[in-house]
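<purpose> Linking amino acid order to shape
<body> The protein record starts here
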Amino acid sequence: MEVTKQHKAVEWLLDGENPAVRYWTLRDILGKPETDDEVVQAREHIASWTPVAEYLREQHSDGYWGFGEDVYWPKWTATVTADYKVNITAGLSGFVRADYDFTGMSYGSFQSTAPAYINPSYAVVNGSIGIDTGSFQVSLYGKNLANNQTIIQRPNVADVYEGYAVRPLTIGINIAKQFR
C-alpha cells in the first residue's frame, strides 16, 4: 500500500504541533531522504519546540544532565565483616576474619550511548586466618575468594575500549610487628 500526504492519518501527523512526529512521518512513512528540504526543516525545528527546548535548557554545557559529581561514584557501597578471636595459650591467640564488600552500579560516562555508561555492581569476599602474639601477627589471607571477574569499567582511550576487572583472586601471607 502506498502512503501519500492525502491520507487523513498522514495529514493529521504532518499538521500536528509536534515537529518530531512530523520529521518521523516524513522519513519513515513517506520515505523522504534526510536531505529533503521538508525533512531538514522538521528536524531543525525539533530542538526549538517548547517541551524539547525546556529539556535541553537543563543540559550542562559539557553535554550531560544532573550533577557531574553523580558520575563515577556508586550509589551504594556496603561492607559486612566478621571477626572471631580465640585464645590458644596465655600469649597466643588465633583469629579468623571475613568480609563481604559490595559496590553498587555507577555511571561511567555522561553519554547514554557510550559502552561505559553503566558500570555494573559487584561484590567480593575476602578472608584471613592467623595467629597473634601481641607483638607479632602472622596471617594467611585471600582477596576475592570467589574470583569474581566482573568488568567494572570500560574506558575509551584514544578510540580503544578497554575493560578493567575486579582484582583477581589473590592469596598471600601478612606478617606484622607491633612496636611499643
Q: What stands out?
A: The chain has a mean pLDDT of 86.
